[in-house]
Design a protein that fits this description.
- This protein has about 170 residues and is mainly α.
- It folds into two domains: about 70 residues, no CATH class; about 90 residues.
- Helix content is about 60%, strand content about 5%.
- It has eight helices and two strands, in the order αβαβαααααα.
- It has a two-stranded parallel sheet.
- Helix 2 links the parallel strand 1 and strand 2.
- The N and C termini lie far apart (about 60 Å).
- The model has no long low-confidence stretch (mean pLDDT about 80).
């Protein structure tokens, strides 16, 4: 009864569904798109879906999204910033540090803002221990901090030693 009452109160809302590709196994894309359609048509809501289409677990999810896309989605915005654009959002301009930082992040293709923040926090934490040291030591700290955060926080990659060696050889 409470659920029915709560649902009846939903009207003219802006609803954001984030990370749709991380849905649970018991929930289908078809059900999500059905709910979106219901909220738009019957409840006069505006619904924003935020997700990485290429990260759907399987072909069935992808196919279900494609079949409902035209009926349910009015506007699509493709956001794919470059590494440099995301770096500039997180790091301030410091020429010596940014050269190694940008080069390493770009070679590893790190675009995830959360990971870039972790890199920044790691570098800032350890900088106090090497203040005033040779620039080569600072550069090593930056590279190792980036590698640490990249290997630990980017879990969707099958990170192997060979991949790491290949990326670093650039």
């Amino acid at each position: 009864m409470i659920s029915s009452l709560e649902y009846s109160l939903v009207n003219n809302y802006i609803i954001c569904l984030d990370d749709m590709e991380r849905k649970g196994k018991g929930l289908t894309v078809k059900e999500i798109m059905g709910l979106v359609d219901e909220l738009v048509q019957r409840k006069s809501c505006k619904v924003v879906l935020i997700f990485n289409e290429s990260s759907f677990d399987n072909d069935e999810d992808r196919a279900q999204f494609q079949s409902y896309r035209e009926k349910v989605v009015d506007v699509e915005i493709h956001h794919n910033p470059t590494c440099r654009e995301n770096i500039s959002c997180i790091f301030s301009i410091q020429s010596e540090k940014n050269s190694v930082l940008e080069k390493t992040i770009s070679h590893l293709q790190i675009k995830n803002i959360r990971v870039l923040r972790k890199i920044k926090w790691t570098i800032e934490y350890f900088e106090k221990f090497i203040g005033g040291k040779d620039q080569r030591i600072v550069d090593e700290l930056i590279v190792h901090s980036i590698l640490l955060c990249w290997s630990y926080y980017i879990r969707d990659l099958d990170l192997s030693y060979e991949l790491l060696k290949k990326q670093l050889s650039k």
